[in-house]
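Please, structure for the following, as tokens.
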Amino acid sequence: MQVTDSNNRHVVYWGTGRRKSAIARVRLIPGGGELKINGKNGEHYFQYNPKYLSVIKAPLEALGLDSEYDILVKAEGGGLTGQSDAIRLGVARALCQLDPENRSPLKIEGYLTRDPRAKERKKYGLHKARKAAQYSKR
């Protein structure tokens, strides 16, 4: 897909989002509001779940740009929840690249904050990160 502006330059805005073990590389291209994730339709990829779709489009809706840009995503790792949150962060970062004035409304809504929670590593001598063997008095 080749998109150019008045100076014959390609108009693509990039943003990378991460959440848990999911990574999403997001491109915003002027268009009609289409969502493509890993080459698939966004609704099909997220199993027609309105929660995931509303999370992804929240930064665009906060700025009133929900039908002006196509979202193209390469997502990997994690599950659907982690990927949808990673895509939201990537979209918000791409919107900041589009116009620096978009940063403050997105920051107020919390769309530019990376959620740092991740799975804790397993420690030796334990079953899981914190689960120990059952204590036996005798």
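The mean pLDDT is 90. The radius of gyration is 19 Å.
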